[in-house]
């Protein structure tokens, strides 16, 4: 039973992704997906949070469009959830941001309370208020604002991630170690002292702290295969973090983090083989206990956790 818990469309993430949401869902069905989590990016709150493509021709108009677009996304996702209910189990969610605690903490909680929303992904795409996965120039800006070295940037990233985790306790933690994507050494083993110029393990201690916290409240880490299509050797998270998570007994889910039709299920075989190499035999998804057409109340439909064996996904992919 193949699935993803993390996906985007060009319809609701223009400039960031491609294709209409319904076309992506239809393609996922053709690929054999049985469950698909829709997780468009949440609205951002200030002009300083906009990406370069959103600054022209009118940044104020771009910012003003974000919340109505999110509301339109929820309405369309609800329509598609019902339309394709006999072919695929659609979960409605969103990917959170954590640029500033004061504004994003309350907003994520507000958005998550919507009756159509099943879950959200707890993610960081910024550190010290600057994007870390856009390009090297902004990554270096984030590094400089975090103290001037990559070590300080990593520390700041895991501190801000911890703040997000403590405030929101997301069921799924998105791309746990995204900070390595544009670093000078994405394959760096952060658990080793020699990985850092000052020869200390503060970064590793903070990453472990975050893992323990997620494990404590019952959150999941995603095996996010988008790292592979972006040129990294391993999915998010890298092996040292993944091994530490396995030792804690933490649960995994699967995500292609697709940004359009052509990225659905990209590198899933490699991602599943990666988990198997860690000794992982099952991944987890969510299942709605009530068909969306039967849930006529304003309350959320209850969800249950569902285990899926990696062998089952691999077998389905082979046929």
- Straight-line N-to-C gap: 12 Å
Alpha carbon gyration radius: 19 Å
Major β-sheet strand ordering? 1-2-3-4-7-8-9
Total number of strands: 11
Q: Tally the helices.
A: 10
Low-confidence residue ranges: none
Structure description:
The protein has helices spanning 21-30, 59-83, 101-112, 136-145, 150-168, 202-217, 226-229, 239-247, 268-277, 310-318; strands at 2-4, 33-41, 89-95, 119-122, 126-127, 130-131, 172-173, 220-224, 251-255, 282-288, 303-309. With 319 residues, the chain is an alpha/beta fold. It has a single domain (2-318), classed as TIM Barrel (Alpha-Beta Barrel), CATH 3.20.20.140. The strands form 3 sheets. It has a 7-stranded parallel beta sheet with strand order 1-2-3-4-7-8-9. α3 (101-112) packs across α5 (150-168) and α5 packs parallel to α6 (202-217). The chain is globular, with a radius of gyration of 19 Å. 39% of the residues are buried. The mean pLDDT is 94. Residues 5-226 form the PHP domain. Pfam families: PHP. Its EC number is 3.1.3.15.
Write a brief structural summary:
The chain is of the alpha/beta class and 319 residues long. The protein contains 10 helices and 11 strands.
Keywords for this structure?
single chain; 319 residues; alpha/beta; TIM Barrel; seven-stranded parallel β-sheet; two-stranded antiparallel ribbon; globular; amino-acid biosynthesis; hydrolase; Histidinol-phosphatase; Histidinol_P_phosphatase_HisJ; PHP_dom
């Amino acid at each position: 039973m193949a699935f993803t818990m993390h996906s985007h469309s060009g319809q609701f993430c223009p400039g960031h992704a491609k294709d209409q949401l319904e076309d992506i869902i239809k393609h996922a069905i053709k690929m054999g997906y049985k469950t698909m989590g829709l997780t468009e990016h949440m609205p951002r709150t200030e002009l300083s949070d906009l990406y370069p493509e959103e600054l022209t021709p009118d940044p104020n108009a771009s910012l003003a469009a974000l919340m109505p677009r999110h509301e339109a996304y929820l309405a369309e996702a609800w329509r598609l959830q019902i339309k394709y209910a006999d072919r695929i189990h659609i979960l409605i969610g969103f990917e959170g941001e954590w640029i500033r605690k004061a504004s994003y903490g309350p907003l994520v909680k507000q958005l998550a309370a919507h009756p159509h929303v099943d879950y959200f992904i707890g993610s960081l795409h910024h550190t010290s208020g600057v994007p870390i996965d856009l390009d090297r120039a902004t990554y270096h800006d984030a590094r400089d604002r975090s103290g001037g070295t990559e070590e300080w940037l990593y520390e700041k990233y895991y501190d801000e991630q911890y703040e997000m985790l403590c405030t929101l306790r997301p069921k799924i933690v998105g791309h746990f170690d995204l900070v390595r994507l544009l670093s000078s050494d994405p394959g760096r083993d952060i658990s080793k002292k020699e990985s850092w110029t000052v020869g200390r393990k503060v970064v590793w201690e903070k990453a472990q702290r975050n893992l323990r916290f997620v494990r404590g409240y019952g959150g999941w880490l995603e095996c996010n295969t988008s790292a592979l299509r972006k040129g990294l050797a391993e999915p998010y998270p890298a092996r040292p973090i993944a091994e530490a998570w396995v030792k804690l007994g933490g649960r995994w889910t699967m995500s292609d983090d697709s940004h359009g039709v052509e990225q659905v299920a990209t590198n899933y075989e490699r991602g599943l083989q990666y988990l198997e190499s860690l000794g992982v035999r099952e991944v987890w998804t969510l299942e709605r206990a009530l068909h969306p057409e039967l849930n006529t109340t304003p309350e959320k439909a209850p969800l249950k956790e569902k285990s899926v064996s990696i062998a089952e996904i691999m077998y389905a992919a082979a046929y």
